[in-house]
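LAB NOTEBOOK - FOLDING QUEUE
OPERATOR: T.R.
BATCH SIZE: 2
PURPOSE: Compare the predicted structure-token outputs for two unrelated chains run back to back under identical settings.
PRIORITY: normal
REVIEWER: second-year student, initials M.K.

ITEM 1
FIELD SEQUENCE / FIELD STRUCTURE:
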Amino acid sequence: MEHKVRDPALAPRGKQQIYWAERNMPVLMRIRARLEREKPLAGLTVAASLHVTKETAVLVKTLAAGGAQVILIPSNPLSTQDDVAAALAEEGIGVYAWRGMNEREYYNAIGFAISHNPDLTMDDGADLTVSLHKLAHGIADKTLDYVTEVAKGVDFVKVASKIRGGTEETTTGVIRLRALHKEGKLLYPIIAVNESYTKHLFDNRYGTGQSTWDGIMRAANALIAGKVVVVAGYGWVGKGIAARARGLGARRVIVTEVNPIRALEAVFDGFEVMPMSQAAEIGDVFITATGDIRVIDLDDILRMKDGAILANAGHFNVEIDVEGLERIAKSKRTIRPYLDEYELPGGKRVYLIGEGRLVNLVAAEGHPSEVMDMSFANQALAAEYLAKNKLGIGVYKLPDELDAEVARLKLEAMGIKIDELTEEQRKYISSWELGT
């Protein structure tokens, strides 16, 4: 397959990384063995816009084992592991990815994926899906010029009409695609993989909870014990980050929220809750996890104490007002890899990790393989489901029985057994007649 990676010579190291991930992803490996026998994806092209990591490589190789031709592009300019990209290219995957892409290169990659006329799309953040829909609907966007530089002469309406369906991995992406459907512009069915319990209950909470702190500690080498940590957003990602902050010995963990139910939940979980304007004055480490824009704005940054550390765990680099920070900073310098120091008017300094992009993938390796095992098992099963079933246009949840199958396989791989309902118990909980 045609490919474009940073350095093909990195392939041997990438293969070792993929091997390690495969050792720790038993659910997906079980699914791979079945797909390899049955070939449900034979003859189909899958265009996947995902973080190009060793875990993603296990998913991609599983899709290929099921008979698919796979095109892999990144879903973030800074998250690609170049050795993994090289290893996949050597194994015949159409990879167009390298770490540190600029905006033009990132959207060129989307053009590369679209130009292969896919049957299925697989997304993390919805940039691939949304770009194709904008082009098909004739919606102007500067980034689309970069897409069409590579996808020259492509009939985007025809490409979209051929697609059987797509999948979406993230909360942010699902929000975008539901909005697209609400406006009547969605052109093919989407399975919201993020809504599977074995995805968001584990990946978002335990995976991001751990890997976010991994990225912060690698970048800043900061001691978390004794610090005041501020977590913006108390969805599943925020819950995981706050819980891990407490476990690392943070002196205070403060949550900021706009949703009263989530704010109340944070209070009942034992965390302080207050507005960001108040938290900004007392926090040592700030982490955004909301999916919204300028959650930490310039006024908040100017209130922060000298030495405050800022990190983002949301999908896009819009949650921290990086543009405003760049505009007012007296100076900027890189102190450590992925750690930039900004001197503010008045002499205070704040430290931004990874340009405000996904801290766990920019400054670390992303989620542990064990948790991505379930997330990507859902992706593989969603691709198979779309290949076998014709869905109407809409945004769907993966069937509950497939979600439960992922959990069953994970427990089996961990050597854990659970009880089963007796016939009497099944009858009791399914009947309206039986009671006290």
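ITEM 2
FIELD SEQUENCE / FIELD STRUCTURE:
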Amino acid sequence: MIQVFSEVPQGIQTAPHELRISAAGHQVAVREVDLTHVRDKDSLMMAFLSGLALTQSFGRNWDALYDVLTDPQQFSGRLAVVLCDYAHFKKKRANLCAEMDQVLLDAQSNAAEQGRLLWLLAEEPDRDTKHW
């Protein structure tokens, strides 16, 4: 298996199983954005505010999200944004997810131009625990 942090970030990738251990070994900061309860753009922006540990002054719009992710003052050279419950969110809120993806991918591209690395990782909850 390819070690995700050994490669240049490209698009939204599947999060590795030992995410935190792997990230620590590569000196990558990890922030988790939980998409489980997102219903609309407002709740999505609140998920980013919480997951990225932003201040209440965060503008809660696409431009503000882009600015935060591309600002070297906010995040130094190596950041992984983990999108928890991504596949379910994408299925449930396709239009909102498409907008979010575009902003994240644009930010990833801009970070690369600055010589910074921004991984976008999709993580799914463990659905192995079945209740019979």
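REVIEWER COMMENT (ITEM 2): The chain has one domain: 14-123.
FOLLOW-UP: none requested
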